Amino acid sequence: MPSVAVKLYSVFFKFLLKHRLQNRIQTTSDHSDPFGVTTRPEESVAPANPSFSDGVATKDIHIDLLTSLSIRIFLPESALTPPEPHSKPRPDPEPRSARANPVSRRNSYGPPLREELRSNSFGGRSGVDGLNLMSDGVYRGYAPGKRGEQRRLPVMLQFHGGGWVSGGSDSVANDAFCRRIAKVCDVVVVAVGYRLAPENRYPAAFEDGVKVLNWLAKQANLAECSKSMGGGKSGGHGVGGEFKKSDSHKHIVDSFGASMVEPWLAAHADLSRCVLLGASCGANIADYVARKAVEGGKLLEPVKVVAQVLMYPFFIGSVPTRSEIKLANSYFYDKAMCMLAWKLFLPEEEFSLDHPAANPLVPGRGPPLKLMPPTLTVVAEHDWMRDRAIAYSEELRKVNVDAPVLEYKDAVHEFATLDVLLKSPQAQVCAEDIAIWAKKHISLRGHEFSY
Questions:
Q1: Residues 6+ apart with CB under 8 A from 210
Q2: Alpha/beta hydrolase fold-3 domain location, by residue (predicted)?
Q3: Domain boundaries, given as residue ranges, for the chain
Q4: Which candidate, 215, 248, 269, 348, has a CA 20 to 30 Å from the CA of 445?
Q5: How far apart, in whole angstroms, are the C-alpha atoms of residue 95 and residue 400?
């Protein structure tokens, strides 16, 4: 069972959440604002930090002029240095009391995962000259040079939780979680600040997720265009990696003349190895984006979604599962609270527990399941949504998709991403388990892990 502290905080959390949800239901307007909001005023946010003081540099980018859609890039310092031969992934600097008392978890629904790694997953050149463009301790990035001159890391596109109505890519909890993932997975994390309900109901958040994926594809193509127009000869644009508008050969703009190549991604991101990761309602968005990536196919090149991670997805349905009956009044996000969240998210005329955004098992939801990317599902023992997530994973395995399930004992919904639980041993072990599984699908050929 969860600790007494978790139980007490859960009571306080549910009381506060219910109050906020009811207030938003009473004040919701029929006229939505296309610009919307991505972070609530009551949310504690972490400012972007473009230095590597803690091993990860961050940068915020507003990518859509018509909406509030934004992203936060998490760049691990490992991108600036070549990997050590046969090195293991960097451990999180937090103390690991869990080593003495290993966290108990069950992996009954897929192939076994081991906690220890035997080899390095990434290749990469040893030469990283020109990458350390620092000014006053702030990383400026640089424009892409010749192919192969720098180490490129896979990209993990991350969608935060919060029941559609709260949370944010820049929240303190999400910032800490993404930093952890960037370190243990050795990836560039792109956290999506999608629009929240009820100001922007379905399908706004889903459309934002797809829009970011398309934006990444455009970034990759602009970077390639930059090389063909002379960027590869000099290895950079302007002074210190900045773009000069006066240089027509090195200033790449889109059709509106506004967007340029993002140097952090152009220098360090390998978008042919893209993983989607979502927590709670963010897992619903990740699964939707994965389906759209399958439908888009070569239109998204060079972006390729190679895997997705669904952490305690926010699934529901009209026919209750066993866990929905037995655990309806579970910790933090109980079923009654989640019903309020769905009413705020789905348009009134479309409200249904079997809506394609809510129930992953309804027919005609998207492309055939056999075309979906490998999918790791993380569930918690005391989460009422666990059975439907497991059922979805079982359907994927029936059509030969790599879709294991990791179930954590004595865990609650959002046990690895909620602010008060982030430092728990379970949260740390969960991040490491995700890294072990994800690296199987993002390793460069010839550098695969051995289990």
A1: 288, 289, 292
A2: 156-416
A3: 4-442
A4: 215
A5: 39
